[in-house]
């Protein structure tokens, strides 16, 4: 019989221990999720600051070179930059909303659990109060009087003391649980108020985003209909391409100089050894504009396109076409948010109009590694990836490397 009771006690202890471990694991999971959200929020805020800084630098350069004159590309870019910054605000606010919703969910569970604990303690106390009401102090007195000697009386007195302590502990537990409940309810109300404010803020930002996008699209539509504006835009974009060529040459030369300064006589790391480059998107994607000379269907004018445009939904992953090192990340006139990868031997690949940059300068990347997301930043009529291959900064047909 004693063996059976012992087994029951051991089983009970095992179950309690398992329950404690389960609760702790749940708490750790919740904490990890909250920590992950905090990390994402911090990253998005840092990205916002970086984009804002890069855009301020670009605007300063534009104002210095173009004085008060507003060119077509500058007007489109100004609107595109506003859209990018507002989108970044939306990203941060969306993550904050998710965090608050998680807090509300946790507090709601905590309140339910606390109410359950209160009911359990109240049930125990109600049984004790019924017993005290029925028997008063007679039961305790009879127990002491029925003791078989002093030792037995001491034991019974000790047991009665323990019962009193247990009653006191139950009352204290009830008070503590009710205090916890009140605190959790106040926190819940505070989080709900915070959520209302953030949801309202998010809605305003999304409306602002739509307004900015509509204004930008209207301007682009006007440019596409007006031959003079269109030609001015194309001339500016060609100039931006030349600037990119010079930027890449300068960056490559500086990189080589620093490498030689750090490790004299060391040969340059060459990642690309020939063969096909990997397709920069995880989906096939339709090529909407090829490399080379383009003829406008209405104006019949000829313009030069320095890469290929591949259509893809907003946010689609953009991957490195081959192993290399990130030479540049940031905003470039006409191109919007850009990533440039150095593959060695003066070969670079350019990924433009990105909605998000997922890498940083100096990072070594593998073939097919995520480096950004498809978007329509800069001068772009819709979501797509503008992909270029350049040798010593000069644009060459990417299809020679992709096919």
How is this structure best described in words?
The protein is elongated and about 95 Å long. Helix 1 (2-66) runs antiparallel to helix 2 (72-135), helix 2 (72-135) packs antiparallel against helix 4 and helix 4 (150-225) crosses helix 5 (227-262). Strands 1, 4, 5, 6, 7, 8, 9, 10, 11 and 12 form a ten-stranded antiparallel sheet that branches. A hairpin with a 3-residue loop joins strand 6 and strand 7 (336-342). It has 403 residues and is an alpha+beta fold. The chain is built from six helices and twelve strands.
Jot down its keywords.
403 residues, ten-stranded antiparallel beta sheet, two-stranded antiparallel ribbon, 6 helices, 63% helix, disordered N terminus
Indicate the topology.
Layout: H1 2-66, H2 72-135, H3 138-145, H4 150-225, H5 227-262, E1 287-289, E2 292-295, E3 302-305, E4 308-311, E5 317-319, E6 324-332, E7 336-342, E8 347-357, E9 364-365, E10 370-374, E11 384-391, E12 394-396, H6 399-402
Antiparallel strand pairs: 1-4, 2-3, 4-11, 5-10, 6-7, 6-9, 7-8, 8-10, 8-11, 11-12
Helix pairs in contact: 1-2, 2-4, 3-4, 4-5
């Amino acid at each position: 019989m004693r063996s059976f009771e012992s087994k029951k006690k051991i089983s009970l202890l095992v179950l309690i221990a398992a329950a404690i471990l389960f609760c702790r694991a749940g708490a750790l999971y919740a904490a990890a999720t909250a920590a992950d959200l905090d990390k994402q929020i911090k990253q998005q805020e840092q990205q916002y600051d970086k984009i804002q800084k890069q855009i301020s630098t670009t605007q300063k350069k534009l104002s210095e070179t173009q004085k008060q004159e507003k060119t077509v590309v500058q007007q489109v870019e100004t609107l595109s930059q506003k859209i990018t910054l507002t989108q970044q605000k939306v990203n941060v606010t969306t993550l904050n909303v998710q965090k608050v919703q998680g807090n509300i969910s946790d507090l709601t569970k905590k309140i339910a659990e606390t109410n359950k604990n209160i009911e359990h303690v109240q049930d125990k106390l109600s049984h004790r109060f019924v017993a005290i009401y029925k028997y008063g102090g007679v039961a305790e007195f009879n127990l002491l009087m029925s003791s078989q000697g002093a030792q037995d009386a001491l034991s019974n007195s000790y047991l009665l003391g323990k019962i009193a302590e247990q009653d006191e502990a139950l009352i204290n537990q009830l008070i503590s649980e009710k205090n916890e409940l009140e605190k959790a309810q106040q926190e819940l109300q505070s989080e709900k108020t915070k959520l209302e404010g953030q949801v309202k803020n998010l809605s305003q930002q999304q409306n602002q985003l739509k307004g900015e996008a509509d204004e930008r699209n209207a301007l682009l539509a006007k440019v596409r209909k007006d031959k003079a504006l269109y030609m001015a835009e194309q001339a500016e974009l060609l100039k931006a391409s030349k600037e990119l060529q010079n930027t890449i040459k300068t960056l490559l030369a500086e990189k080589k100089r620093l490498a030689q300064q750090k490790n004299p006589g060391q040969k340059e790391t060459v990642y690309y050894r020939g063969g096909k480059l990997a397709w920069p998107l995880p989906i096939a994607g339709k090529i909407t504009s090829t490399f080379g000379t383009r003829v406008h269907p209405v104006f019949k004018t000829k313009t030069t396109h320095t890469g290929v445009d591949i259509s893809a939904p907003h946010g689609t992953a953009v991957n490195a076409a081959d192993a290399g090192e990130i030479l540049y990340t940031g905003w470039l006139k006409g191109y919007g948010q850009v990533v440039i990868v150095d593959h060695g031997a003066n070969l670079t690949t350019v990924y433009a109009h990105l909605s998000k940059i997922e890498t940083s300068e100096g990072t070594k990347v593998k073939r097919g590694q995520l480096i950004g997301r498809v978007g329509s930043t800069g001068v772009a009529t819709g979501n797509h990836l503008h992909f270029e291959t350049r040798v010593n900064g000069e644009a060459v047909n990417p299809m020679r490397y992709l096919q």
